[in-house]
Amino acid sequence: MRLKHIALSVLPAAAVVTAMACYSDPVYPGNQLLGTFQFEARLDPANTTCDAAMPEFAQLDDGGVFRFEGTFSKNDDGGAGWFTVQGFDREAKYEGQLVDSALRATAPRASCGTGCKDSQIEESLKVTIFSDSQARVLNRDCNAFDGGVPDGSPPAPTENGYDVSLACGSLTDVFLPGSCTCTPATCKTAYKVQGVRRD
């Protein structure tokens, strides 16, 4: 099960079955749905040590981009949170406008040899989410985001759903060899991400 990127599609078999069974009527964890976003991840060569042309690391288009979709949800008491990709609910930490979702999973790599069973990938998605008014200040473009929070009301629940329309940040994958002999042994791919709410 592979879209454009290995880590975002590494799912336990049970999660794949559940995702396919519920595809037409998704149910997200928590009692506060923030929204589903269409993401573009652009390779950040300065912070990438893997050979990004190798198929197990990413499948990029000619512009060095891959696309994926994800949904933010959480409990309104400020406790648990999630980021759901392809029906798989990853844990996520929500602190103000910052969202951090990390995942570690077994990920076979061709460069580790056919007998390798325990090579892994450690992925971290870190984004800042913006309300519609803040997104307008940024012209709905993450290139205008300099790390400071723009003017406007912060993301919050409203009568018409959660007011959040843009997510800006980074996606980092660290490939670990486990007990295998891999070439390279450990390396990292880094991406700059922009997510636009689609619903």
UniProtKB/TrEMBL annotation:
The keyword Signal belongs to this UniProt entry's keyword annotation: yes
PROSITE patterns referenced in this protein's UniProt entry, alphabetically: PROKAR_LIPOPROTEIN
Keywords: Signal
Leader sequence residues: 1-21
Name of the molecule in the record: Lipoprotein
Organism in which the protein naturally occurs: Myxococcus llanfairpwllgwyngyllgogerychwyrndrobwllllantysiliogogogochensis
Species lineage: Bacteria, Pseudomonadati, Myxococcota, Myxococcia, Myxococcales
